[in-house]
Every structure is written in structure tokens, then in C-alpha cells.
Amino acid sequence: MVVGxxxxxxxxxxxxxxxxxxxxxxxTMVGDEPYGNYNRIMLSHVLAGENAIDDDDLMLNPMAWYxxxxxxxxxxxxxxxxxxxxxxxxxxxxxxxxxxVLVVATGSNTFFPNMDxxxxxxxxxxxxxxGFRTIADTNGMLQMAEAAADxxxxxxxxxxxxxxxxxxxxxxxxxxxxxxxxxxxxNQQLDERGGRVLRNKIESLGVGVHTSKRTTSVLxxxxxxxxxxxxxxxxxxxxxxxxxxAGIRPNVEIARSAGxxxxxxxxxxxxxxxxxxxxxxxxxxxxxxxxxxxGLVAPLWEQAVVLAxxxxxxxxTAAYHGSRLTTKLKVAxxxxxxxxxxxxxxxxxxxxxxxxxxxxxxxxxVVRDNKLIGAMLLxxxxxxxxxxxxxxEKVALPDERISMLFDMGTPSAETGAAELSDDxxxxxxxxxxxxxxxxxxxxxxxxxxxxxxxxxxxxxxGSCKGLVSDIVTFAAGDDLAVDVSxxxxxxxxxxTKPELIGAIRASGIRSVSEVFEKLAPAGEDAxxxxxxxxxxxxxxxxxxxxxxxxxxxxxxxxxxxQRDGTFSVVPQIKGGVTTAAQLRRIADVADKYSxxxxxxxxxxxxxxxxxxxxxxxxxxxxxxxxxxxxxGKSFRTVKTCVGTDYCRFGLGDSTALGIAIEQRFQGLExxxxxxxxxxxxxxxxxxxxxxxxxxxxxxxxxxxxxxWEIYVGGAAGAHIRxxxxxxxxDSSAEVIRLCxxxxxxxxxxxxxxxxxYAWVPRVGIDELRAILVDDRDGLVxxxxxxxxxxxxxxxxxxxxxxxxxxxxxxVSALPLLPLPRVPVR
Length: 825
Hints:
Layout: E1 2-3, H1 7-18, H2 21-24, E2 28-31, E3 37-38, H3 43-47, H4 55-58, E4 59-61, H5 63-68, E5 72-75, E6 79-83, E7 88-91, E8 96-98, E9 102-104, E10 108-110, E11 129-130, H6 135-147, E12 152-156, H7 160-171, E13 175-180, H8 192-204, E14 208-211, E15 215-220, E16 226-231, E17 236-238, E18 241-244, E19 248-250, H9 253-257, E20 266-268, E21 280-282, E22 287-289, H10 297-312, E23 326-331, E24 334-340, E25 350-356, E26 361-368, E27 371-378, H11 384-391, H12 413-419, E28 425-427, E29 432-433, H13 434-442, H14 448-455, H15 465-476, E30 488-490, E31 493-496, H16 497-507, H17 512-519, H18 529-540, H19 553-557, E32 560-561, E33 567-569, H20 580-592, E34 597-600, E35 606-611, H21 616-623, E36 635-640, H22 654-665, E37 674-679, E38 693-697, E39 708-712, E40 715-716, E41 720-721, E42 724-729, H23 732-749, H24 756-763, H25 765-773, H26 780-792
Parallel strand pairs: 1-2, 1-9, 2-5, 9-21, 11-18, 12-13, 12-18, 13-14, 20-22, 36-37, 37-38
Antiparallel strand pairs: 3-4, 6-7, 7-8, 10-19, 15-16, 16-17, 23-24, 24-27, 25-26, 26-27, 28-29, 30-31, 32-33, 33-35, 34-35, 38-39, 39-42, 40-41
């Protein structure tokens, strides 16, 4: 039995199964959370709203994995008591589970320092206070960030986790301050100079940094609402949200109550056996080995291997001797690598530094008795692989120590990949060694995509992707294959998107099930349903065969599902221009249906949040306004500034042009959401330079005119990117024409969920200009015809309130499952 379904517990079970343990043991696992095992490292990416992160990236072992491997999982049921003599574990539900061998993998908990006002009288955290350890923590922060404008957050703790929390919240538009008691950030990994470089990087993101300050209190108003934090110097900071990342502590309460030996963690020997126990083991962050507890994943993987060898008898003499910690990761977008000591400790230690604050680069090495005992890289970590080898005493040090930091005689990154020893851990997030990658290639994998899918190397923080690619290239040699599947629209069908469109048109296929039947060699693939449904709508418009099961809930009910199962309704307000009558209707609807939140969106519209599913048709009817398409992968909104009517700087009528663009392309299906903006002068008040399609009036000879610059592929969310200049148009009509052919080419060529800020640089702005502006390939006329046909088929989806597509379309599906929920903040 394994108590704990986190990364350490599940990895131990994986290792046991890989050694034939499934035939030796009936394996039962108990986990607090109502999910399979997920990668906590990816929560930072989820908080940052990164579009590339999906369930496959987050979930290491989905619920189906346990069934397929014969593992019994009691999810969402906390283990409460261990009876060492009866050999049973009692769960919170009252369930008793017998065991012959018990593995305790309870991990660690967020450390909450003693602070006035941190908790309610019943011990719960105050509303607005979060840790950052679980999906629930992450969802709670996202919910609060999205629920109100001008949210301010204070992150207590400037270590790795705190900076990741600050970065994620900042990308959500939250004003963030980081407070750190020591004198510099990430003081566990970095020295003072490294901390200074990192601070400059963090502050450049718009995050406030306060070091050498100890938080002593959480300030709350008479209603108990968080309003700020207080410090030991009697100063304060305002805050609506507080995220505590002041460290972790081993979760040992169940082990302590069972009478196991506890110091800092559960004391274990070299075989991970608990002290004075014959059948109880511990692994991961909850255990203490030779006086050390570990909070990084790499030691957890090493412990899991040893424990699996011992329990299955694969190697009864296997022993864990502790871990030499090397850290390579990406902190708030900054590459960091650190190992060993941070600086010289003796007079004869050699200490070499390179410090360039302007470029955000800092490197240092510490050498003692001709051995590398410490290294630090910030910004440029290209020498991390060589330094890791040197730190493990697997390569000799060069006489010129400076060459350890630059390519001056030491191996380049490519050469270093070839010279790495097989036991070098390449991916710290998922515990993948070079030897495992080589084994995967020897087993038949011939492309980077196949290796990543089989080993998960590179699917954590992403800092090792380059090295993984180098190793695969080295290992495969002349057999290295181009990963053709990377260009397939969906994995189930071996065709690129243009090829698939051609096949669907040629065969007249109009339903998702028919696509699988005729074009998918292995048959149906659930993950391919939504992208295929989107593609069929692009090709056939309303004439596709609508199979409800192929659609996401948002597309089935034409509203955006929220975390609590209610929906948000965003009516269309073209160009952000509304009327008193529209505002009155919105206010009346909010009152009539007790809608808990009415919010102004970043796209100049009004969002009604908390609408019940069964009320959607009535809300739409009473609003009597078209859908604003804030829920789908589609053309969404055109943001505008005041333009020439009132602005004294206006060069072009941005409001009229924005409304015309939205009127023409409203609701148009696309691979991912499309956000547009039109600005009446280069002051760019509507933020056109960072939109999927942005238009800026430039005037002529310093005066007003109908002349516009068109920018494409911009972003200002999780990714920050200025759009590329596609063309300069001499009329509003030309802007609309170019907008249409750009959108249609994007609809036909981009991958599913690929935003324009990724698609434009992938294709190249020069190539797009040649195709769409210069018409090099003769495609423009066809693109214009197809987009004109598509917009001509527009129908307001909210009209389905009159004739629903199915009897259950607007029937409440709540409650779904009685799962634990984060309280509404």
C-alpha cells in the first residue's frame, strides 16, 4: 500500500511495475486530491495561463492509468491513521485498508509562518490567503485574479516557488509585490550578485521586490477581508491576495501518530526503510535520510528507483547514498543552473566570476583541490551540461578556469551532449537520464517527438529541451528522422492540415465520426474530436453535421463555463461602443437572474458571470443582443480607441473601422481565439501592436487620412510579443480585405490551438507578406472567396434559445461529482 498519490508515491509505483511488481503485489494507493498523479512543477505554467499546457502535460498518471495497471486508487480520501501492529490504514471515509508492505509518500506542506490575521478562528486560512502546492491553490488564485479588476497580490517568499507565483499572477494582469526576509532573491541557490541580476529581471516584468523585510501580520478590514500585510519595521503593503511561499515542511503527522521515528522528516535507512520497521518504508519529501530532507524532484526519482529494486527483489542490495543537488530550471522566464557551494569558503578556494548586469548574465565557479565544488549560471546556461559532469567528477577541469564558463576549449553544448555519462540526469522535472534517452532511441525511436512522448523528457519547465534534442541527434545519428507527426493536424490522422482539408472536401465528409471512419487508420481518438469539429466548421460552416459529443461544453451551450459550473455571458458590443438602452437591459438582466458579478472585460465589453445553465436561453432573450463569442476558438472582439470624433490626436476613424471589421468577421471559427484592435494614431491607446491583428492609423503629411499600418502576431498575455508589420493600407476597405485573407489563411494553415503569436513567427512575416500581400502563389483570390462565403453563413448562436439542438442542451448538469472545492473567494 502507498499512502500518497503525489509525484514520489506514483513514481515509486511506476518503478515497481516496470520491474514486474504488478504480478507480485496487489497495489493500493490513497491520495488526498480527487485526481490522478499530476506534475506540480507545471502548476507555475498553468498559473501563467500558458496555452501550450494541456491535461496531458499536467497529468502524469490520469485515472485510466491506474485501471490499466491494476492499481487500486482511493482518490480524494485522506489517510488518517496507521496501525503498525494490525497492519491497516484507516482513511477519512472510514475505509480500512490492509497492507503487508506500506510506503509512506505524504510529501510536504506549505510552511505558513506565524502571522497575526493569517487564519480564521477555526484555523482555516483567511479569505484571500493561499499556498502554492496544489491544483486547488492554483485554481483559487486564478479565480480571484479573474474575478475583479485591479487586484493586488503580495507573495511572501522570494525563492523559486514565490517568483514563479509572482510571474504567473503578473501575466494574469495582477499587480504583484514579492517580499523576502533574506537580503537577496533565491538565497538558497544564488549568491548576492546572482540575486541582484535576478532581481533586475523580475523587476523588469513589473513585479515589486522587497528584500530584508519580514512579514509579521496579515491586515484585514472589519469584515475579515484581506487588505494588506504588515512588516517588522512597521511599514505595510496593500494587498487583496496573499500567496505564502515561505518554504515547505515534511508532512509527517500520520507517521508521527503511528509512532514512527521523526526528526525533520521520517527517518529512513539506505534502503528507504523506516527506522526499527521491517515492512514500512518512506520516500520523497516526507523522509529524512542521513540527516537530509530534499525538496527537489531529482532525489525523489533516485529514492524511488532504490525502493523499487528492494521491494521487487530486482536488486536486494540497492542502496540510496544521498543526492548531490544540481538545479537547472527556468525561473519566471530566466534560465538558472546551480550546484554545490555558492562561493569560496577557504582562502585557497579558486573563485571565477563573470558579471554583466546589463544583459542579465552571471556565471561563477568554485574550485577546490582541482575539483569543482560549486557553480552558478544565470541567463546563459549553455555550459550547464559540462559543469554538471565536472561537479560529478566525471570530466577533468581545464587549466584555464574561465573556459569552464565559455566555449574556450571545453566542449560545446553539442559535444557536451555526446560526452555526458549515461547516468547524468538530463530532465530534472521528470527524472530522465541520458541513458534512458539512449535506450529509447535504441528501442526504435528515431525522432525527438517519439523520445519525448516515451520518456517525458523536456515536458517540465522546458529548460532541458535543447540538451534533449542534442542527445537524440547524437544517439540517432544518420537514422534521425524528421518527426512528420509534428505537422499532422491531429495525431490520429497522418495528414497535414491542408492535406486533411483537401481530403475532407474531396470526400464530402461532414461529421467527425465520418472523418474517423474514412481517414483515421486506428479509428476514433477522443482527443481529436474538438479540433476536427472546429476544422469541419471552417470548411462547411453551418452545413457541417453537428455531433454534440464532439464539442466542448462551451461550444454546445455558447457560453464560457466557469470553475463552479455556472457560465459567463458576454453580449456583443461592437468596438466597445454601447448605448444607454443596452446598459439598462444588461443591468435589468443582472438583477432579474441574480447574476453575482458584472465585469468590464479587457476587450471593452461587459461580462455577466455566474449564470446558471438552465437560465442561458432566458438571459439571451432578455438581453436581446448578439453573442460576443467570448467562449470559443473564434474571432472575438475588436478593441478601439476614440478615433477622430473626439480625440485631438486622432488620424483615422478607428471606431468606425473597428465596428466594420467586427461586423464582417463576427464569430468566425478559427484554430484559436482571435483578438483585434484598431487605434486612431500611433499613440496606440487600443494596444493594437500586441493583438492577433492590429491596425494603427498613421495619417499622411502629419494630418488625418485613411492610411493604416497592419500588425499581425502580437500578444500581451502569458507571452509578450510585438506584432510584425504585414502591410500599409491606403483605405479602410483595403484593411478589411487584408484582414479577411489573413484570417482565412490562418484558419486553413495554423495548428489547433496555435495562436497567431506562435504561427506568424513559425511561418515568417516575409513569407506571409509574399503570400498575402504580393500574392506570390496566386492564393489571394481563393482566400478572399472562401472567407466571404464563410462570413455570409453567419448565424447568431444565441438564436438556439428558440430551438435548442437537443433536449438536454440547456438542462442543468450540476452537481457533477461531490468533489472537494476551493471556497469562493
